[in-house]
Specification:
With about 200 residues, the protein is of the alpha+beta class. The chain is built from seven helices and eight strands; from the N terminus they run H-E-E-H-E-E-H-H-E-E-H-H-H-E-E. The strands form four sheets. Strands 1-2 form a two-stranded antiparallel ribbon.
């Protein structure tokens, strides 16, 4: 990292980023709970939220990371399958049968056979449905449902003030920054220190 950046205090930028990321977290959770129409290769169409068990929504959290002294980064963390839902998956890439079984058990839906007839929820029927889901995903992949993309697009409206926050941080630390990169103050002016 450049020497001059290590002593810049980022309190305004950090406050702005923290508020922005909390807003992004909220928007992401709203997108998860919003009804979305999805059509599957079988021809069935569903209009429902992405959350079945609530696990995805609960997993979305803002995470702060400090990087090399002065710099920091914020990001969203969540269940590992969130990106697969957002971007979709290619054919032949499937989750394990155990993960599908766990998902079916957590999902409060009626199970149906290939003809659409309702079947009883037993270990055997859940395992059978998980197998058919796995086979379908291997053949068709998963179509994208861009809930994260939509949340980011909606949150971009709130980035307008970021430049102001950064300018304030730099103005508050400009003297320290100039000293760190090789200037010194002489009679109220900064002069570059010449190397010998």
């Amino acid at each position: 990292m450049a020497q001059g950046l290590t002593d810049i205090k980022l309190k305004n930028t950090e406050a702005f980023l923290k508020a922005y990321m909390k807003r992004l977290e909220t928007l992401t959770k709203i997108e998860i709970g919003r009804n979305r129409t999805r059509t599957y290769p079988s021809g069935r169409t569903y209009n429902s939220p992405l959350e079945s068990s609530g696990s995805l929504r609960e997993s979305i959290k803002v995470q702060k990371t400090n990087i090399e002294n002065a710099l920091l980064a914020y990001g969203l963390k969540g269940n590992d399958y969130a990106l697969d839902i957002n971007k979709g998956t290619p054919k032949s890439r499937t989750p394990s049968r155990a993960k599908l079984i766990s998902w079916i058990k957590a999902k409060p839906v009626n199970l149906t056979d290939k003809k659409g007839k309702r079947i009883k929820r037993t270990e055997q029927s859940i395992t059978g449905v998980a197998g058919r889901m796995q086979k379908s995903q291997k053949i068709h992949g998963i179509a994208p449902v861009p809930f994260l993309t939509q949340a980011v697009q909606d949150s971009m409206k709130h980035l307008d003030g970021m430049g102001v926050a950064i300018v304030h941080d730099i103005a508050d630390s400009v003297e320290q920054f100039l000293t760190n990169i090789g200037y010194r103050e002489v009679n109220g002016k900064f002069e570059l220190i010449k190397k010998k």
